[in-house]
Automatic annotation (TrEMBL), chains A, C:
Gene3D superfamilies: Glutaconate Coenzyme A-transferase (3.40.1080.10). It holds the Pfam family CoA_trans. PANTHER family: ACETATE COA-TRANSFERASE YDIF (PTHR43293), CHOLESTEROL RING-CLEAVING HYDROLASE IPDB SUBUNIT (PTHR43293:SF3). This is CoA-transferase subunit beta. It comes from Nocardioides fonticola. InterPro entries: CoA_trans_fam_I (IPR004165), NagB/RpiA_transferase-like (IPR037171). Belongs to the 3-oxoacid CoA-transferase subunit B family.
UniProtKB/TrEMBL annotation, chains B, D:
Coiled coil: none annotated. Pfam families: CoA_trans (PF01144). InterPro entries: CoA_trans_fam_I, NagB/RpiA_transferase-like. This is CoA transferase subunit A. It comes from the Bacteria. Transmembrane segments: none annotated. Keywords: Transferase. The keyword Transferase applies. The lineage of its organism: Bacteria, Bacillati, Actinomycetota, Actinomycetes, Propionibacteriales. The keyword Phosphoprotein does not apply. GO terms for molecular function: transferase activity.
Length: 276, 297, 276, 297
């Protein structure tokens, strides 16, 4: 098994983590007016949501993980939403119980960023482990809040690593539900307001899901990489449209806002995302 | 988004007029109070609210009694309604004794835990070992049922989730996006808001979001729990507004006497329907009395 | 029906409300180390609990009604625990939900002060009304938190008015449970840690309950009044021991602490309690 | 009480030594963490704690992993255990894969709502429409059962109340009576405390009660929820303590490497069992490193 390689956008004007944050922020235009949140290992989503509130989604409300701030306005992006400095400049403190309230109510929680140790081509994620349950080859960190994918209106999936082990045909365990393996769409029995994953972000590309069968589909490939790079590093089939655009690089305004208001200490410039 | 002008989009204000708020309330029937927001109560009455089911906070006084005096209440969750050492709630007492309102015989559990249960999206809450020997299960059979704990097999009581169509809350300070600070309260507001379809906050003062950010731990209602904000200076008169003004005790005593003497309509005509809006109400009370109430808070 | 008369201790050195507060405070020595609370119309109990923390019960923790303070240290006693000024100098803010938590857990809540529109000789209290339920002669204010008498370890009952209408043989409705009418003691089915009312305070006297049958028993009569005054103004039988002491007047220290640290504006000096 | 001397009785201090705290923990088996109180974890290990069932906060890292590394954990509620971008929890991973600990496959609902349910004295909590399509009901049959809503007849899931015998919490400031301020947290502490038989708070600083009274809204744990207080300066090292000090990232990386390399015992001997007490631990880390961690918080 080769060591993971660092994803690089083919230019030093911005890092791949910055590109991912900027691209995530753009797609949050869809969520303007909604309430959302980020959880563990959310360095890039934290920056993305904060950027979106400045650009395309001024009416978006978000809670910043375990630091418990609503709409924080930190200028020094921490690595973790668990870091108390992520609370800086918040409008309110949200007790953990309130997050559970929103999750249980479902419709009040618009979106969240979820990850996992595996994702499959129907958007199901696994945080539990790999292998038979009584003899796991790899024990995952646990289901934590990704369960809310069953309840919130929709979710975004993101991975700091893109590989054949991360993107799989079928996850070993479902911690957060995506779509039914039979191609019929959203799993039955969940809240009707909860429509499943919208987009998947990795260090190589952005994916969405086909309208009919809800299978992974390539949406754009990041600068520096090709459709073949994506397919080669994926362990599942991905629908590839005739035209696959390159993910648009950050505009000057996006980069200016990101670097002067959100991430002055360059956390994302130094943040390594990988593939392979 | 234009790179050249550096103009970022503005966040949408949720501020509406008190009259708009009144109209929104009058369109709904199942009303919860987070505390006792008097300006919204007067606005609702001016807008013709009627046939209401009211879920007050654990203790309520004039906000609920005035709605009853005006004949706007059909059904009421009774936990405590009264004016403590100033006396009983006269309109409530008369309406309940003459059976012109329906009473749900509630208590702190029904209201607080029922609201919490609705706020948390749960269908009901199991409750153990409280109601035996009291008359509440007999008087309140629709709200106290039995359920078996699936883990132990023990039978317990269950209370239902208590949702509302609209929730009204007084805040001392709020920004135009809905972040609100309720001072001098015991935090019933957030659960009441979460358990409601539509939330209106009236605020003594509209403040900047920067000021909200100075004390994020004091934000009682984050903006995402609030649908509309109304600027209502002295909006809780004649009741107390923590750190802002005292209860206007002489005014409240006047209310109590008038209703007891059968002059509720006269009070309503003078203080609710007479003034064309809330500014006229405040003129009626007068600047001298209002500003004097700010002493000693 | 004669108008109620103002209870007066036969001296102008202290008011009857001050005497009640002081006597209540002494008996809270029993509650040192416990958590307790006061609710609506609790002018006198508020002063009493605060005085007890200075004198006989330094380890007592209390929450002060709707103002939501724990161990407030106001020096200007408000009329109501609902008044936000009752929060002054608190050690913590206690959300209403926490009160319900303590009530539900039972054993964590040591004591509370309860009242009602009626109390009977077995300590049951009524906040609901008088008369048949479908045609109440008098509608009461509602059960509010007196329900916790079923759950907290024990409670104190207090009344600002002592009359044949307040003290009755049997309440019309039970809002808070005292003892069984058959003389067998505490009602069945409640939390085993919840032992029922300990003492009853009125403007004329202090009462407790007999050890065997848990019936009201005269414990002391306030200065200015006699055993006959108490019985004449009560609508229920009360056990009268051979010796009934006079309630001890406030000591100099008690009165000094009350008037200089708790009630500088003389709320209790002017507070009228009544009988008849 | 003597009228002459004006001497009032003193309130009882709840302060105990870290060693006493360790002994109290070692006497119990069912342990909940309100956050990640490292000094108490080290004290518990020095006192020989073992056979523990651990209920961590929603996200946990070193506090739980170190207990596992030391072989003190028998059973663990797993919601999230890991070091986020620094890596997986190595002792947990090894123990879980080799099945030397029992895992309860939990999630935020199991832990937060289960704790809230216990805190509120309720036997269980009904939960609707969440677990379908996930593997949690299958992997966690003891904690997810079915119950019928007595008001609607609808079947929902139920989760049990999650109580503990002892609960350990890190605070930045506490007074000797137990009033405690937890900074940089999301308020899991109070429910965890209410759901436990015995609560120990370790505090970076012991402050006066007058100082607690300056900001009563910031008191995370009122004194009546706390049974014992331990003065533990830098007590959360090498983890973060909000507004007080940063995570000691190099130290944490050292821990992760050593455990991954099979040198867990060496880490434990050096940093837990080696130092005779917590002062010796702090000496080992050194004043330079500790005070430098106070930058930029």
């Amino acid at each position: 098994m080769a060591a993971p390689r660092i994803a690089h956008p083919g230019t030093d004007d911005y890092s791949m983590a910055e590109l991912m944050a900027v691209e995530m922020s753009r797609n949050l235009a869809f969520d303007n007016g909604l309430t959302g949140g980020v959880g563990t290992s959310a360095t890039i989503p934290m920056a993305a949501v904060r950027l979106a509130t400045l650009t395309v989604a001024p009416d978006l409300t978000w809670f910043c993980g375990a630091s418990a701030g609503i709409n924080p306005t930190f200028s020094e992006l921490p690595l973790s939403a668990h870091d108390p400095t992520a609370f800086v400049g918040a409008e309110a403190h949200v007790p953990m119980m309130r997050t559970v309230d929103l999750g249980m109510q479902g419709a009040r929680w618009g979106f969240g960023f979820n990850g996992g140790i595996q994702v499959d081509r129907f958007g199901n994620c696994n945080m539990i482990g790999i292998g038979p349950y009584d003899s796991l080859r790899m024990r995952g960190p646990g289901t934590v809040g990704v369960i809310w994918a069953a309840s919130m209106c929709h979710c975004y999936l993101y991975f700091n690593h893109h590989s054949t082990r991360t993107l799989v045909e079928k996850v070993d365990y479902i911690s957060s539900p995506g779509y039914n393996y039979d191609g019929s769409g959203r799993w039955a029995g969940l809240k009707p307001t909860s429509t499943g994953p919208r987009l998947v972000y990795t260090p190589l590309c952005v994916m969405d899901f086909t309208e009919d069968t809800c299978e992974l589909r390539l949406r754009s490939v990041h600068p520096g990489y090709t459709v073949e790079d994506v397919l080669e590093n994926s362990g599942c089939s991905i629908v590839v449209p005739d035209e696959v655009p390159t993910t648009a690089p950050p505009t000057q305004l996006e980069l200016m806002l990101l670097r002067t208001q959100i991430d002055r200490t360059g956390t994302l410039r130094d943040f390594q995302v990988t593939y392979g | 988004m234009t790179d050249q002008t550096f103009t970022l989009p503005q966040r949408r204000s949720k501020e509406i007029s008190l009259e708009e708020a009144g109209a929104l309330i009058a369109q709904r029937k199942r009303l919860a109070f987070g505390n006792e927001p008097m300006a919204l109560v007067r606005a609702a009455l001016r807008a013709g609210a009627e046939g209401l089911t009211v879920i007050p906070p654990v203790t309520t006084s004039l906000s609920t009694d005035l709605l009853i005096a005006a004949g706007a209440v059909e059904s009421l969750y009774v936990c405590y309604i009264g004016f403590e050492t100033l006396g009983m709630a006269p309109a409530f007492r008369r309406a309940a004794e003459s059976r012109t309102i329906e009473v749900v015989e509630a208590d702190e559990i029904t209201v607080i835990l029922g609201t919490r249960t609705a706020a948390g999206g749960m269908p009901f809450a199991p409750v153990a070992n409280i109601y035996e020997a009291t008359d509440l299960p007999r008087l309140n059979p629709d709200n106290l049922r039995r359920v078996v704990d699936p883990f132990t097999g023990t039978e317990t009581y269950a209370i239902p989730a208590l949702r509302s169509e609209i929730c009204l809350i007084h805040a001392q300070e709020a920004d135009i996006y809905g972040n609100a600070i309720c001072l001098g309260s015991n935090n019933q507001e957030a659960d009441k808001a979460l358990a409601s379809d539509f939330v209106i906050v009236q605020a003594d003062r509209i403040v900047s979001t920067d000021r909200i950010r100075e004390q994020p731990y004091r934000t009682s209602l984050p903006s995402n729990l609030v649908d509309a904000v109304v600027h209502a200076p002295f909006g809780n008169h004649p009741l107390v507004s923590g750190r802002h003004y005292q209860m206007d005790v002489p005014h409240v005593r006047t209310y109590l006497s008038m209703v007891k003497e059968g002059r509720a309509q006269e009070y309503l005509d003078t203080y609710v329907y007479g003034p064309k809006d809330e500014w006229a109400y405040l003129e009626l009370i007068g600047m001298h009395d209002l500003l004097t109430l700010q002493r000693g808070v």
